[in-house]
Specification:
Length: about 280
């Protein structure tokens, strides 16, 4: 399951992770995400009684991260109840539950963190959707799922932990012909050269390896995935980071993100591609 020392270190990181920036936001409505947010925040959350200010910020941050998941799901195309979806690198499973609520179909999530898988399955049971939403302790580079089983697959901020050519080869195998793959990811800007200092600090913080923007399109082309939509979400995600920096949940990585986005060395992209 865990092929390399690096994969073992990533699994250990997420098995031990109990960051309030993930858990406190999920506590708002029981949807636990492991990604960032998009859209303008409501400035009124910074006003009003000081004793409830942080709670208002947390609720708004969670609204923005759920809005990000909605945008990803919007790009999956027409999904029917008889279809099957795969959430690759599912974290604690919030997006999978949102997908099932929207489409009514079966959703499988995979993670190399047993702790995340156990937590996510517990949430599915609490919501009474565990007959349709299931999480698996599997490697997204080699899931063991049948060929052509999925109408849609997504990665939401998880591709920076794997080789893109290996990942997209596995996704292409699992997707039905004409199926849709969607990724939202941070990637460094090839035009500015290698990783900037700010991007390197993000890598270090999350024990990841952020890819250049061009690598996504090269790996897709090599594996029969044809981009249909490319959306630059960079400007849309900056408000989330500005608000998070003013909350009790700030972890210190907010400044590198804001610096990298503002200087243009880092982009936040959505790519939707069809399997051909």
């Amino acid at each position: 399951m865990l092929r390399t020392a690096y994969q073992k270190s990533v699994a250990e990181y997420w098995n031990n992770e109990k960051d309030p920036v993930n858990l406190s936001l999920g506590d708002v409505d029981g949807l636990y995400h492991h990604h960032y947010g998009i859209g303008e925040y409501d400035p009124s959350v910074l006003e009003g009684p000081q004793e409830t200010r942080d709670a208002r910020i947390i609720e708004e941050l969670h609204r923005l991260e759920s809005a990000q998941a909605d945008v990803l799901l919007d790009h999956l195309g027409p999904i029917a109840p008889e279809h099957r979806l795969l959430d690759a690198g599912c974290g604690r499973g919030g997006s999978s539950i949102m997908a099932n609520a929207r489409f009514g179909c079966q959703v499988d999530g995979v993670s190399i963190s047993q702790q995340q898988v156990d937590f996510a399955n517990g949430q599915a049971r609490k919501r009474g959707v565990d007959d349709k939403v299931r999480y698996h302790f599997r490697n997204m580079l080699d899931t063991g799922f049948p060929t052509g089983a999925f109408q849609g697959i997504w990665n939401n901020e998880s591709t920076m932990y794997v080789d893109l050519f290996d990942l997209f080869a596995e996704h292409a195998r699992q997707l039905a012909f004409g199926g849709r793959y969607v990724v939202i990811t941070g990637c460094y800007n090839d035009v500015t050269g290698g990783r900037s200092k700010a991007v390197s600090r993000i890598d270090e913080h999350y024990t990841c390896n952020i890819h250049p923007r061009s690598a996504y399109f090269k790996a897709m082309a090599a594996n029969g995935l044809v981009p249909m939509n490319v959306v630059d979400l960079t400007a849309a995600t900056i408000p989330y980071w500005e608000l998070r920096a003013q909350s009790s949940l700030a972890t210190g990585v907010e400044d590198p993100f804001l610096t990298a986005y503002r200087e243009g060395s880092f982009h936040y992209l959505l790519i939707a591609a069809d399997r051909v």
